[in-house]
Amino acid sequence: MTGIGSEFMERTKYRHLGPSAQQRGEPQPPLGVLFRDGAITELPAVESVAGDGVDLRRAIEARRSVRQYSETPLTFDEVTLLLWLTQGVRERLGERATLRTVPSAGARHPFETVILANRVDGVEPGLHQYDALEHRLVDLGAPADVAEQLMTACLGQEMILSSAATFVWVADPIRTTWRYGERGHRYIHLDAGHVCQNLYLAAGSIGAGVCAIGAFDDDEVNRVIGVDGETRFAVYVATVGKLVSED
To answer: pTM for the whole thing?
Structure first.
């Protein structure tokens, strides 16, 4: 096997790794970071928010990608639930680590969640970052055509326009590579899968569907979100919307 992918897998094997930044005694990076200042929307306590209690086996067996959505918006409580179940902080261990609703290698949790709100009750249309440490949304500011820009960056996938919201998971890789060195890049992509699967299952509890997107122009998505593509970069995208009635 040859090529960049094969080289990546080879060079991130343990035998090629030197001491990590943690092993060299370098300070730990912050547990979270806000990309920009903006208006804050406090989210309700998750204890007050509930789905329909769908059986886990039924949710897993029913899981599928959904690309067509109704025009029904997500409620404020529903988007809160989706954010919580994909990145919610269950416990904070001082400045050392967070325990969240998804697994992450070494509890490093390298992701920040950005949502494109198209139709979310109580949330202004545009880009917002989920501040998981404080359980709130921060308005990132965005041009009026940001949905069209993101669709174009995702190679014209039109469900971004018809979705109630689109989730973009942005990696802050140093959180993971600080402990694991170059092998941490493997773990970041594994962590992305854990997060997106939680979104699929959580959406099922509110009568919504999800479509994960891995095909996108990385540089363009990073530009739309407003990250530099080096120290922080988009890894995964997923659209969410209410299911179309079968009546």
So the answer is: 0.96
